[in-house]
Amino acid sequence: MRLLLVFALLLLGGAVALILAVQHQSYVIEKFNQVRLILLDGQGADCLAELEDLGVDFTTLGNQGTKKCPVLNAVKLSNLGQTNISTPVVLSCPAATKLAHWARDIEAQRISHVGALNCRNMRGSRIMSEHSFGLAIDITAIDDAVVSKHWTNVGARGKKLRFAAQIACQHFSNVLTPNTNKLHKGHFHFDYGLGYKCDAQP
Question: pTM to 2 decimals?
């Protein structure tokens, strides 16, 4: 009987917590976005030195962005050592080093992307996207393998994309692929932010 009472109280407590969370959702999200800013770290000169060691062609930009969307220790990448990129891209240095290590590990000759820096919420959410802080990039193709066309391909191009996604999970916090949802059917999303998600399997 006592065990049943404890179980009932736990259920009631959980229900109350859920109701409070829903009622105060805006406040919780606002505080999360504020705390997220405190946790940002550009990693200073050591990060820039690592990029140089990797042979990356980059320009240092210092701290960029706005109070809402700061990009700490920003760098503009022209290439990733032995890997060309479709257009120059601005990232926070820690994300840039992750991208360079990943490109080296998959031995890519060329990476195509559709952008990195974008001060906005996550789609369908009021939580700030890691794109806001220069910690995320969206990849559309690796060499001749195009995410929108070859992700499930049984040939060499599909294998290249799936291998690249699996290796990305070793470097980035979150790796989103066409497996994740329809919003990512045409690109990979890599970020060096909070949490951990690896959708690398076809």
Answer: 0.85
